[in-house]
Amino acid sequence: MMYIPIQGFISSFRLLDLLDIALVAFFLYKLFMLIRNTRAVALIKGLLILGAVTIVSKILDLHVVNWLLQQGMTVILVALPVVFQPELRRALEQIGRGRLFRSGQVISREELERLLDEIVAISESLAKTRTGALLVFEREVGLNDYIDTGIAINGIVSRELLGNIFIPNTPLHDGAVIIRDNKIMAAGCLLPLTSDRSLSTELGTRHRAAIGISELADAVVIVVSEETGAISYAYGGHIYRHIDGAALRNILMGFLDKPQPGLANLLKWGGTK
User: Fold this and answer.
1) Which UniProt keywords apply (predicted)?
2) 82-129: per-residue pLDDT in tens?
C-alpha cells in the first residue's frame, strides 16, 4: 500500500528540491556553529524541553497545564529577539562581511606558522620576566562585543607589538588582546569573569577572565601569570596550567589550523593525500 505514495513522491522530486534542502541544511549548520558553546545553546535546550512538555500535556489532556505552557511559549517567542540579540547581530555582521560562507581560517599555512612563532616567542619572553598577559584567539564564535570594549589596533601580530602592549603600568597592560586570524583586533579589552567558585584561590583576575570568555565562546585563551610567570591556556570553561613553548605551539596549531575554503580544497577530496 505504501508503494504508490513513495513512487509518486520520487517521481515528483526535482533537482531544485534537492538544492532547497541543501540550502536549508547549510544555514541550519551555520546557525549551529554560530551559537555553539554560547549561552544560546542552553536557551534552545530549555525551549525544546518546554515544547516536549507542551506536547505531552496535550496528549494527556492536561488542559490547564497545556494552556499555561502555550501562553508561556507565546511570551517566550516574542522575547526571543531580545534574548538572542548578540547572536542575531553577530550573524548579520558575518553575512555583511561574507564570513557566513567562509569555512575556518582565511590565512595561509605559512601565515599560521609565522603567527605561532610570534605567539610562542612573546609568551616565553613574558613568562621569563613575569609580565602578565592575556591573549584571546577568536574562532567560530565572533567576539565583536568584547573587541568594542578595547582600543582598536587592527595590526599584524608580532612579538614586538605584543611586547609593547603588555609593558607593565601602561593603559593596555591589564586588558586582553583579541586576535582574529593573524591580526590584533584590539587591546585593553574587558572580558567577563567566570562565576565558578570551585577554582583555586591561586588564580587571579586574568585566569578568571580567560575561563569566563571561554565559557561564552569557543575562543582559546593564553594567559601568562604575573605572579609565577607560568603559561596557561583556557578553553571550554577549563584552564590548563604550566605548559611550555612547544606544548603551546601544538595546542594552538590544533585549535587554529583549519583548511581554507575554495576550489583547491574541494579538489583534494578526489586526490591522493
Assistant:
1) ATP-binding, Cell membrane, Membrane, Nucleotide-binding, Nucleotidyltransferase, Transferase, Transmembrane, Transmembrane helix
2) 766 666 666 666 566 555 555 444 678 899 999 999 999 999 999 999
- Domain hosting 141: range is 109-256
* DSSP label at residue 249: H
Q: Residues 181, 249: one domain? A: yes
The runs of H, that is alpha helices, within 36-176 are: 39-59, 63-83, 85-97, 109-128, 144-147, 159-165
Burial code of 73-103, b = ≥16 C-beta within 10 A, e = fewer?
Answer: eeeeeeeeeeebeebeebbeebeeeeebeee
Report yes or no on 63 lying in a domain.
yes
Helices H / strands E in the chain, number of each = 11, 7
Shared domain for 90 and 125, answered yes or no, is no
pTM of the prediction? Answer: 0.63
Residue 103: DSSP 8-state: -
Residue 25: partners with Cβ closer than 8 Å, 6 or more residues away: none
Radius of gyration of the chain (CA): 23
